[in-house]
Fold:
Amino acid sequence: MSLTLPQTLRWSADGRAVELLDQTLLPSQETYVRLETSAQVVEAIRTLRVRGAPAIGVAAAMGVALDAARHTRASRDEFMSVLDAACRELRSARPTAVNLAWAVDRMRRLAEDLGDADAGTVACKLYGEATAILEKDQAMCRRMGEHGAALLPDHEPVRVLTICNAGALATAGIGTALAPVYHAVGQGRSVSVHACETRPLLQGSRITAWELERAGVPCTVVIDSAAPLLLRDGAVDIVFTGADRIAANGDVANKVGTYSLAVHATQAGVPFYVVAPSSTLDAATATGADIEIEHRHPDEVRRGFGQQTAPADVAVYAPAFDVTPASLITGIVTDRGVLRPPYRIES
Ligand code: MRU
Structure:
């Protein structure tokens, strides 16, 4: 069975731009925006037009290639300083997902390794590298799908719980946490998904539910605070979440609310799996305590989607991510296989 999944981002037909599905407009509008500079890619990442750890890494690599292609007549020094500025801005567009730094550093290293090559040659290689990063992400998603689907119980329908969007739209391929679902459905299995709404920006209800419905996978949106009840009441067979960064000891930063799911899954005896590509593994960060957690603007809570929902100046606590300790994680599904505790992450 073949599934219809949305394409998160792609090169434009003329190769001069990145076209990406503007996720801020979902689920009511399916609109691709055309980005021609790294600065436009930075804006798209900051405003969550593109979001999800692997997808922002791929977008950033493409952003570096865009600026390189616009400066092919520059001297080597000028070219490298353009590239450095682009890499700096892209790398710092959001702090938590390591995929961003992973992709940008890979692009920067390639340019460096090409030594005295002229700007045109380097730009051409960088375009190829960004395409390779995109294709590698697609391949990693497929492999996570295979490894994760093997963990599903035999009975049907299999009932999966997830949070945020860690599906196709968080990657260049079929997703991370939803890859096992898509793989299993593609093999003819019956799978239903409970998608946490994911306050305050509603990536679960706006994006995951939209993506699953479009693919024909049964989906129920769950208000975040009700997810523990589903776990307690035996309505969930397995939890799959994505990750934004996995520290050397197996601690996982992911969308805020993931920690709470892990606590309640553990208490209910429901297996809790994190699904993430190798580009999310960060052996250089010792533990979750060392991961920088992004905080979102208070107005996303006070006036979410333009509607006043709290006093205009009230203080807001809005971390975008939380850290789930390794001790609560049944296994980490990567493109290389399933890691089990005790975790010793190698990048
Ligand atoms: O703030 P977002 O929407 O970028 O957060 C995304 C998540 O937390 C995802 O679950 C995570 O990036 C893993 S996605 C493959």
